[in-house]
Design goal:
The chain is an alpha+beta fold. It is 42% helix and 12% strand. It has helices at residues 14-22, 67-75, 87-109, 115-126, and strands spanning 27-32, 37-41, 48-51. A hairpin with a 4-residue loop joins strand 1 and strand 2. Helix 3 (87-109) packs antiparallel against helix 4 (115-126). It is elongated and about 55 Å long.
Length: 127
Amino acid sequence: MTFGDWDETLHRDPDQIVKRKNSKSVVLKDIDRETGSALAVGSADEPYVVTLNECTCGSFKTGKPCKHMYRLASELGLIEDLPEPNREAAKAFKENLPSEIKHFEDLYFRGAISAEKYAAIAKALKK
């Protein structure tokens, strides 16, 4: 999946995946398929101007694609939808949690990750 001038690997970053997920709530209007631009209705009084490379929203100040850009890319058919939850896969993951946590515990005791990282990962996996 690629759009605009972005490296394809950026879209797999956890923060970007959340933006992609949140893009489903974005309302676009005046989509111009030829220029790859649109107006995104947001929290501001005026709509955001969004292209595949830029957006006038505050989130774009990070220099990474925002949810408005992901919505536009989706509307233009340039990116695939994120996977839907899969109960069987979730159940298998839950059953495998003890070994996942043990893996990170082993990394901690080998000095590969800090105690803080191990604790954060273990807590996140247990949620």
